[in-house]
Structure formats: C-alpha cells, structure tokens
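okkk here we go again. third time trying to get the zinc ion bound version out, last two times i messed up the smiles copy paste (missing a bracket lol). double checked this time i swear
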Amino acid sequence: MDRTQIVSLWRKAQSGSYALGSFSPRNTFLIDAIVSAAENVHSPVMVQISSNEMRWFDIKPGEFAEAFFKRASACSVPVVLHLDHTYDFDTVKAAIDAGFESVMIDGSKLPFDENAALTREVCEYAHARGRAVEGELGNIGGADKLETGGDERLYTVPEQAREFVRITGVDALAVSVGTAHGVYPTADPKIDFDRLNSIRSIIPQTPLVLHGGSGLPQQTVRRAIKLCGAGGIAKLNIATDLELIFQRVLGIGRIPNSEIQKLDPALLEAAKAEVRSFVEGRMREYLMSAGKA
Ligand SMILES: [Zn+2]
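finally!!
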C-alpha cells in the first residue's frame, strides 16, 4: 500500500471510532498468525518490527519484508508493513529499500528542534517514495527496554504537537499520555485523557498513535479510541503480549529468529493458533476493527 492509502486507512479508523492494530510478531514465523487473524475477522491490520527487535532477534529488514509480502500478496484484507521505533536515518532507508510501506522515526529522546529536524528529513525522503511516516513527541518509555531502550516517560505537550506536525509534515503522531512499553506494573495504568483530548482537538487532522497496548484494559483502549467529539487514536501498537503467548506455549525464553524452525512443529502450530486467536480477540473487543476491512 502507498502513503495515500495508508493515511486513508488511519483517517477512516479515526472517523469510524475504531483503531488499526499494529502488531509485532518478533519473528517471521508469526506474521501468518497476524495476517490470518485479520482475514478471519475481516479487519485491516499493520505488521511491524522495530530496529531493536531486528537486532535482538537477528532479523534483517529484507528478510522480514520478504516473509511479509509472501503472505500479504495472497491476503484478502488491507495489510501494511510498518517499521516501528527507529532512531537513525540509515535504518529507515534500509527498510524503505526493503519495501516497508510505513516507517516510524523516533526522535523523542532528542530536544524538540532536533527531533523536528530529523523527522522532517525522514518525511521528505519517505514521502518522495510514497511511504507514510509516524513521528513521536514526548517520550513513551517503559519497563521493557526492547522497544525503545529507555524507561523514562515524558508527556506530550499539545501546543508543541501542533508545532511539530506543522514543521515536519508527519502523517501520524505517537503521543505520550501515560501508556508504557512492556509489562505494566499495575492492572489499571492511568491515562491522561484530558491531555489526549487536548492533543486531539489541537491537531484534528493528524492520526494519533498509542504505544504500549499490551496489558492495557479494554475500557481504557475503547475510551482512547472513542474520545468525545472527533475520533481518538487511530493506531494501537501491541507487541509484548504476542511474545509472552508464544513463549508460554513453547515453554521457551527469547530466541533468535533462525532458531524457531528447530522447534517442535506441532507446538509451533499450537503457539501460532493461540497468537492468532489473541489477535482476533483484540480486533473484535478492543480495537473494534473487526468487519472494517
Ligand atoms: Zn512504542
């Protein structure tokens, strides 16, 4: 899919009060579980991998893209290949060369001006090639260093969000309003809905992205998607949950992508089925994207 089609998927979600799930399989084997779930419940979906995940699991952008397109070419619903948290221009370029359709440049740990300059540079490069760009303002942080490499949270300031979007031309914006990456230490993480509402009304045309979707209660996700007035968040990232299910069924820890084919095929199929059913459930009950393809 090209940039125009992807942005229109996000806008449709925003106005239709549902969100696209952007799921991290953390290996090439589970790409099928995510795409099959989307087909089964007739939902649009994004499949993502971050630069840290590629390093941790020893996956090259080209390898991930090849596995994705092999499955996606025979797919009956809209599916998007997305590069999650990436901090440098070179990795973005490598992903775009490999065929990634949407990329996230995360300059959120930089001072505002540097973040804006880097994001703008990436937008110019990606837009010229028909790819969509997600930026981040305010730092989401988390307990799990896998996705972002940091644990410090810094909330997004609404007025700065307007300035950031104006300067950079980003297609979507990840905001920091209380969610975190990894496993939450509490069952009911506090989300700053007033802040989310302010951001939403100050940049009504920009699709908003919420990260840290693993372990977020259903009512919290639904409220963030619906908000009052304009639609709320249009994309929700879910990563950790999938890996936890995969590891539990197989009784393993974190292993590189190339080790997966050595595991018991029957157990692998069982793990895939469980991840698929989890993703279907999230689409139906949290994202409300089932039937929207
Ligand atoms: Zn994230």
